[in-house]
Every structure is written in structure tokens, then in C-alpha cells.
Design a protein that fits this description.
The chain has 250 residues and is an alpha/beta fold. The protein has a single domain, classed as Decaprenyl diphosphate synthase-like (Undecaprenyl pyrophosphate synthetase). Helix content is 43%, strand content 14%. The protein has eight helices and six strands; from the N terminus they run βααβαβαβααββαα. Strands 3-4-2-1-5-6 form a six-stranded parallel β-sheet, with helices on both faces. The structure holds farnesyl diphosphate. The site of farnesyl diphosphate has 21 residues, from α1, α2, β2 and α3.
């Protein structure tokens, strides 16, 4: 969690950036292409943004790749997205290792094929010791799922006598979320023109700054990322305090 006592002056480069990569389908439609073409072009944008964040010094980048609700898409599209994830993991792993990136997946991975689950576990193990940047892929992820699974595990620990229910506070609860150990996102970027959270990191976004872009994800580039960072750097993060309090602490 980004502690409320943290410096309230935003750093120029956010420490943790979270992105809802939206607009692949509309990018394709605008070009009279099938939706999968948009997803493959979206993968190119993902590679570009990972490299840019790495170069800019972002410590944690969390990407919303596939939501709990995306399973409701037509079977053929889900199948293509799964194939894309398998291919992307194979193709990108070497570069991620070379860049010192640690990969971490959050979400209900039991819903994936055994092959994908195995690939995910291998990629996590292979990059475990890397410290330059953490790349967190939210896949089969939902903010409500995350909160519910945390509550279930806390209830089980309490039932087993390992935890005192009266001792469950925010800091304790966070240890059971899939993002345990990560700072909360400083900046959330959503492309594609929609202005909603779509069940992303519901708990973790409590004090996050939001940046909405009308660009479709495949078009999101360095100039857009930098304008998101500039917008972020101009914000006053108050974490519940008054503006005067924050200014006097700066
Ligand atoms: C949203 O666009 C995008 C997705 C559901 C898939 C995200 C996947 C990628 C960007 C590919 C690469 C990512 C990784 C991590 C390997 P949409 O289909 O909802 O677009 P629309 O709103 O225009 O229909």
C-alpha cells in the first residue's frame, strides 16, 4: 500500500503504473479488420509500453490483460486471446529476462489451460530474482474476485486459529490480496475513451490518480505515456489531508 504518510508531492515518474488497455476491437473495426488483428496490434503496443516504462524508471507496471468478465466473450475470441497470451509469453520472455524484469501474474489462474498455467509458473520462477521492474499481468482478474478470495483466506486462517479476527485491519487484509507486497498504483491509465474501472484493482486504486486517453490501445505511444506522466506530476496528492497541510509538508 502507498502509505497515507507518504510524501504527498507526486514524483514525476510514478512508481507504480496500472493500465486498462482498452480499444483493440475498435481499432480493428475502424480499419475493417477482424477483432483479433486489434489484439495482435495491442500486443505490439504492450511491448512498446513495457520498454518505455522500463526506460523511464517505473518500478511496477500492472496491465489488465483479461478480466473475470472477459470469459463472457464469444468462445472464438477467448480462444484467440489465450493463444495470444501463450505466444506472447514464449516470445517476450528472453527480452524481459535481459531487462531484469520480474513477471508476476494476478488472477484466478485455475481457469486457464494447464499449458498456460505451467508457462505462467515457469515465467514467474525464471524472473523471480529480477529487480529492475516488476511487470504484473492481471489475467482472469477482477477486483471483486481479489477481495473475496482474500476474505475467504482470512476466514480460513481465523477458523484455524492462526489469526485473531479482531486483529484484521487494512494492513493485514492487504497481505491476502493478490497484490501483497506491491505498492498501490500511483497512476491508472485507461485508453479507449471509456471512463470506468471495470472491476480492476478496486481496493488498490483508493488513492490512485486517473488518466483517461481517447486513443485505442494499439495507438498508445511514447508521447501519450509522457503526457500521462506530466499530468500525474502536476497533481497534488492529498490522501485525505487539506491542500494547505500538504503544501506545508512539501
Ligand atoms: C481490450 O480491448 C483488450 C483486451 C481484452 C485484451 C488485452 C490484450 C492485449 C492488449 C494483448 C497483449 C497483452 C498481454 C499482456 C500479452 P477490447 O477488445 O475490449 O476493445 P474494444 O473495447 O474496442 O472492443
Amino acid at each position: 500500500m502507498t502509505a497515507l504518510t507518504d510524501t504527498a508531492t507526486a514524483r514525476i515518474v510514478p512508481r507504480h503504473v496500472a493500465i486498462v488497455m482498452d480499444g483493440n476491437g475498435r481499432w480493428a473495426k475502424a480499419r475493417h479488420l477482424p477483432r483479433p488483428a486489434g489484439h495482435w496490434q495491442g500486443l505490439n503496443a504492450t511491448r512498446r509500453v513495457v520498454r518505455l516504462c522500463h526506460e523511464r524508471g517505473v518500478e511496477v507496471l500492472t496491465l489488465f490483460a483479461f478480466s473475470s468478465e472477459n470469459w463472457r466473450r464469444p468462445t472464438w475470441e477467448v480462444g484467440i486471446l489465450m493463444e495470444l497470451f501463450v505466444t506472447a509469453l514464449k516470445r517476450e520472455l528472453t527480452e524481459l529476462v535481459n531487462r531484469g524484469v520480474r513477471l508476476r501474474f494476478i488472477g484466478d489462474r485455475a481457469a486457464f489451460s494447464e499449458r498456460l498455467q505451467r508457462q505462467i509458473a515457469e515465467a514467474e520462477a525464471l524472473t523471480e530474482a529480477n529487480t529492475r521492474m516488476q511487470l504484473v499481468i492481471a489475467a482472469s482478474y477482477g477486483g471483486r474476485w481479489d477481495i473475496v478470495q482474500a476474505a475467504q483466506r482470512i476466514a480460513e486462517a481465523a477458523k484455524a486459529g492462526q489469526i485473531d479476527p479482531a486483529a484484521v485491519d487494512g494492513a493485514c487484509f492487504e497481505q491476502y490480496l493478490s497484490t501483497a507486497g506491491l505498492p498501490d498504483p500511483d497512476l491508472l491509465i485507461r485508453t479507449g475513451g471509456e471512463k470506468r474501472i471495470s472491476n480492476f484493482l478496486l481496493w488498490q486504486l483508493a488513492y490512485t490518480e486517473f488518466f483517461f486517453s481517447d486513443s485505442f490501445w494499439p495507438d498508445f505511444d511514447a508521447a501519450e505515456l509522457d503526457s500521462a506522466f506530466e499530468s500525474y506530476a502536476a497533481r497534488q496528492r492529498r490522501f485525505g489531508r487539506t491542500g494547505d497541510q500538504v503544501a506545508s509538508r512539501a
